[in-house]
Specification:
About 30% of the residues lie in helices and about 20% in strands. It contains twelve helices and 13 strands. Helix 1 packs across helix 12 and helix 8 (about 150-165) runs parallel beside helix 10. A hairpin with a 4-residue loop joins strand 12 (about 295-300) and strand 13 (about 305-315). It has two domains: about 1-125, NAD(P)-binding Rossmann-like Domain (Rossmann fold); about 150-315, Dihydrodipicolinate Reductase, domain 2 (2-Layer Sandwich). The two termini are about 35 Å apart. The chain is α/β, with parallel strands linked by helices.
Length: about 350
C-alpha cells in the first residue's frame, strides 16, 4: 500500500486527487494538507466527502509528511513546493508537484513568466516533466515529477506527432484554447463569479499566459531540441470542467488524411488514455468529463494547405489530478491506469 500525502488538498485539483485516490486499491491518504482549513474536518470543506473521509485538514509541513508518505502531491500555488523541498525530503519520499515550479528548465524563463524568484533551482534539472505518454521511461523511478499544466497537456498531446514528424511549420503554430472555470482555482475572485462568467466567453492572458513557454519548451524537444515560439490564446467559458484546444499550422508538404492518421497512430495507438477519434468527429469536452482521457482529431484544409488539430480533456483529471496519479503509478511500479481508468461521466 502506497502512503500518500496531499498538500493543497482543498483546492479543486487537490479535491480531485482525494476523489480519485479513494478508489485507488493500492493507495492510502495519510495527510490532507490545507493551510486555509487547518484542524477542520475535510468533509466539512467538501460535503461530497461526508462519511467517506474521516480526517481533519493538516498544515503544509513537508518535513513531517516526508516521514509518513511514500508520495507527496503538492497541489499548491506556484512557488510553495520550491520553497519547501530539499535534499533530505527527496531522500525519503517522491514528490509529484502540480504547480509550475519544476516544469520549465530555464530559471530565468520561469521567473520572468511567473514573476517570482525560484527557491530551489538546484532540483530543476533533475525534475522529470510528467507527460506520461511522452516521458514514460524517464518518469519511472524519478523522485521529483513536474506535473504538466492543463492547457499544456492538451496542446502538446494534440500537436506532438505533427511536430515530431515535421509535418507542420512550427513557426506558424497557433493554439486557441477554451477552459471551464475550475481551471482558475477555488479562490474568491470577482471575475469568476457566476454573473461575471455565465452567458459569456472571454480571452485572457493574451500573449502573456504562463503556459506559453511550457508548451514551447516541450514542443521544442519534439522538434529535435530546436527552440520555437507559438501564439497561444486561452479563453474562459461558462462550464465547470474541460479544455478544448484547437491548433492551426501550415503543412510542410501535401499530405492526405490516411498519412496524418498513421502519424498519430504511430505515437498513440497503444496509449490507453489517448483516443484518436473517427474521421469527421470533433472532440467535445462533454465526452471526456470526469475522466483521464484525451480525445484528439484533425482536419486538413487543402485550400490553405493548413491543418487544424483538436484536443479535449478534463482540466481537473488528465489536466491535473488524474495525470498526477498516473505519474505516481509509474514511479511506484503500479499499473499505470490504477485508480484513473474511470469512464467519462455523461451528462
Amino acid at each position: 500500500m502506497v502512503k500518500v500525502g496531499i498538500i493543497g488538498s482543498t483546492g479543486y485539483a487537490g479535491q480531485e486527487l482525494v476523489r480519485l485516490l479513494l478508489a485507488h486499491k493500492d493507495a492510502e491518504i495519510v495527510w490532507y494538507g490545507s493551510r486555509s482549513y487547518i484542524d477542520q474536518d475535510y468533509a466539512d470543506v467538501y460535503g461530497n466527502m461526508f462519511k467517506l473521509v474521516d480526517a481533519k485538514c493538516m498544515d503544509d509541513n513537508m518535513e513531517a509528511l516526508a516521514d509518513q508518505a511514500d508520495v507527496i502531491f503538492t497541489a499548491t500555488p506556484q512557488g510553495l513546493c520550491a520553497s519547501l523541498v530539499n535534499e533530505g525530503i527527496l531522500g525519503k519520499t517522491k514528490i509529484v508537484d502540480l504547480s509550475a515550479d519544476f516544469r520549465i528548465k530555464d530559471v530565468k524563463t520561469y521567473e520572468l513568466w511567473y514573476g517570482i524568484e525560484h527557491k530551489s533551482p538546484q532540483f530543476i534539472e533533475e525534475a522529470v516533466y510528467g507527460l506520461c505518454e511522452i516521458n514514460r521511461e524517464k518518469i519511472k523511478g524519478a523522485r521529483l515529477i513536474a506535473n504538466p499544466g492543463c492547457y499544456t497537456t492538451c496542446s502538446i498531446l494534440t500537436l506532438y506527432p505533427l511536430v515530431k514528424e515535421r509535418l507542420v511549420d512550427v513557426n506558424t503554430i497557433i493554439v486557441d484554447a477554451k477552459s471551464g472555470t475550475s481551471g482558475a482555482g477555488r479562490g474568491a475572485k470577482v471575475a469568476n463569479l457566476y454573473c461575471e462568467v455565465n452567458e459569456s466567453i472571454k480571452a485572457y492572458g493574451v500573449t502573456t499566459h504562463r503556459h506559453t513557454p511550457e508548451i514551447e519548451e516541450q514542443l521544442g524537444y519534439a522538434y529535435d531540441g530546436t527552440p520555437l515560439m507559438i501564439n497561444f490564446t486561452p479563453h474562459l467559458v461558462p462550464m465547470n470542467r474541460g479544455i478544448l484546444a484547437t491548433a492551426y499550422a501550415n503543412l510542410t508538404k501535401k499530405v492526405d488524411y490516411d498519412e496524418v492518421r498513421s502519424v498519430y497512430e504511430k505515437y498513440y495507438k497503444d496509449e490507453t488514455f489517448i483516443r484518436i477519434l473517427k474521421k469527421g468527429v470533433c472532440p467535445e469536452t462533454r465526452n471526456v468529463e470526469g475522466s483521464n482521457y484525451v480525445d484528439i482529431n484533425f482536419v486538413i484544409d487543402e485550400r490553405t494547405n493548413r491543418i487544424v488539430a483538436m484536443g479535449a480533456l478534463d482540466n481537473l483529471v488528465k489536466g491535473a489530478a488524474g495525470q498526477a496519479i498516473q505519474n505516481m503509478n509509474l514511479i511506484m511500479g503500479l499499473p499505470e491506469g490504477e485508480g484513473i481508468s474511470l469512464p467519462p461521466m455523461f451528462p
